[in-house]
Amino acid sequence: MEYYFSTKKMCVGYQKRPLIKDIEIGLKKGDILTLIGPNGAGKSTILKSIAKQLELISGVVYLDKQSLSQMSGTELSRKMAVVLTDKLKTEMMTCEEVVATGRYPYTGHFGILSKEDYRMVEEAMELVHVTEIKDRDYTQISDGQRQRVMLARAICQEPEIIILDEPTSYLDVKYKLEFLSILQEMRRKKGLTVIMSLHELELAARVADKILCVNGAYVDRFGTPEEIFVPGYINQLFGIASGCFDEENSNMELEAIREDAKVFVIAGGGTGRNAYRRLQREGIAFIAGILFENDVDYPVAKALAAEVIGTEAFEPIPEEVLERAKQKIDACERVVCCKEKFGTLEVANGALLAYAQAAGKRIETKVIV
Amino acid sequence: MQRQGNRKIRHIASFLLLGIGVLVFLVCNICIGSVEISLSDIGKCLVGLEMEQTIQRILWDIRFPRAVAAMILGGALALAGYLLQTFFHNPIAGPFTLGISSGAKMVVALVMVFLLGKSVRVSSTMLISSAFLGALLSMGFVLLMSRKVSKMSMLIISGVMIGYICSAVTEFVVTFANDADIVNLHNWSRGSFSGTTWDHVVVMAAVVLVTSLIVFFLSKPLGAYQLGEAYARNMGVNIKFLRGAMVVLSSLLSACIVAFAGPISFVGVAVPHLVKGMLGTTKPILMIPACFLGGSVFCLFCDLLARTLFAPTELSISTVTAVFGAPIVLWIMVRRKKERAV
């Protein structure tokens, strides 16, 4: 397998002290690699080492079959652009001038920009929609605008590979999506290879071809999103103790109220999620049922309910499951029903509601409270 | 495009203004003094026509070299300040505020007293080399401090402290060195352009012009360095080399000034700041020549005042530069505070 970018036994760290050892990455041209991991796990350290900002402790980084350590500064700067978390220090510089610094590797001895250079600057600014702020002072714009200006700067450097350290942290949802779309577009059109760290796991799961999971002392896993986003893994990687992350849907839920439940929620088909979250916010423990295991409500219930009564998908609800649910309702004071009607496979839920009514429980219907 | 055009006009106007300023003050410095000299006399002297002997002597031996020295050294001083500000990313860094001038002064004083004691004549090259050594010594110390302290103000305070220590040593040496030449040494240690000879001018011109040209040729990597080291490195700049060059060049410029005129305060901080405001940019390719011209104007102006204000008594040049320069430094500090508070 011929990789465009690869690391062999790369060991990174500060002041000769190794932090993360034996990092093996292999990317084809146009791949998007995302680094994920807890705060302080060493994502930035790896990115800085790859970008030649930090000296490697040992190992080699290859770019286009060439060892990075043997490339000259200018050679590398024409292939690799970076957007770091370090603030760009500017004084009396407009956004346009900041973007124009991306042309540095291509200008002559005195750094004077040609017409062609200005055209590239213009194009890059249009691509990330910062043209309207081009005459504003760089220090006077918002953090989000600054991140976009920095992307424009990196783009007009015409890199083959781009290294981004948490590039979307200050962007609103619209610009987050736009930012990643631009990266995807540049990968499609120009074969741009992207290496970036992201804190937004849901975005990482969607945009990355490869994911590197960093865990403080070592690289825990390196693989495709399908291999990484498997049930339980993210919770383990980040050591999530309160609340949980649902790997399959990239949802986050807060911690469940684990007390003796006095409320039973009947739901299904997505009707229950908001009720579950509401009860959690109000600090009320509840039991969720009866849910098919492939129901969109199911993972949320798993995360938030004190207990979930689940059943096999695409099958009628078995008698013993209904019995178990009835027993639970006996112990509850209140029943919340989120459903307005019951389908043929979930008549048991209808029976459950009728049972609760007959038992004189307080019934709340629809999305309530 | 419109804006770019406007900016270009602003730059051209600034350079014209500075150029004219240098010329005007150069002529003023030559004409004005205890003996008034007319423009036509200057012309005659330059062309080499017959003229009154005393006037010619005053012009050629005193006024000309002194004015040219003020021009060259003023430029060097502002440029050294600009380099140090860029190096430390600190707007109030300068050869004087960081104690580099004082370090150079101390070594020069030590060398001079030692050699005068042995009745050896001190040559220009020896002056510059000892000043350079002293400048590097102080610079080394400041660099060490800059690793330990991250705050800008702390760096300046440590620089000022180094300055005090070096000045104390110099004072001590000068006070106890018992020689007729010490009178000169005393004047020099307070900073003055007086007594400059053509020999000196030739040496300083050579050193300063070559150094300044090198600085000018570094303007592209300096521009990248201003953005921060990480980004400069990604732009292909050899940081180690550039930093080394900046240390050597700024020390050399500071050394040259101290060797010939003694320590001169605040020019290195005030002038780059004023010039920056004038140009509306910090791009080195414009700032380097503009700082040089601005420093020339500033020093010519201050020397004119130093000579004429209380004639025949002459003020030390630092007295005048401090009056104009120190408020500007204060202004910079106040404004920075405000910016950060926003």
Structural description of this entry:
- The complex is a heterodimer of chains A (369) and B (342).
- Chain A is of the alpha/beta class and 369 residues long.
- In chain A, 33% of the residues lie in helices and 24% in strands.
- A six-stranded mixed sheet of chain A has the order 6-7-8-3-9-10, sandwiched between helices.
- The longest helix of chain A is centred in the middle third of the chain and has 18 residues, at 173-190.
- The N and C termini of chain A lie far apart (59 Å).
- The relative contact order of chain A is 0.10.
- With 342 residues, chain B is an all-alpha fold.
- Helices cover 80% and strands 0% of the residues of chain B.
- The radius of gyration of chain B is 20 Å and the shape is globular.
- The two termini of chain B are 31 Å apart.
- The chains are: A alpha/beta (369), B mainly alpha (342).
- At the A-B interface, helix 2 and strand 6 of A face helix 9 and helix 10 of B.
Topology:
The complex is a heterodimer of chains A (369) and B (342).
Chain A: E1 5-14, E2 17-27, E3 32-36, H1 43-50, E4 58-63, E5 66-67, H2 73-77, E6 80-83, H3 95-100, H4 115-127, H5 143-155, E7 161-165, H6 173-190, E8 193-197, H7 201-207, E9 210-214, E10 219-223, H8 225-228, H9 233-238, E11 244-246, E12 251-253, E13 263-266, H10 273-281, E14 286-292, H11 297-304, E15 307-311, H12 319-331, E16 334-337, H13 347-358, E17 362-365
Parallel strand pairs in A: 3-8, 3-9, 6-7, 7-8, 13-14, 13-16, 14-15, 16-17
Antiparallel strand pairs in A: 1-2, 1-4, 4-5, 9-10, 11-12
Helix pairs in contact in A: 4-5, 10-11, 12-13
Chain B: H1 2-31, H2 39-47, H3 53-88, H4 100-117, H5 124-148, H6 152-176, H7 182-190, H8 198-217, H9 219-226, H10 229-234, H11 239-261, H12 267-279, H13 284-308, H14 317-341
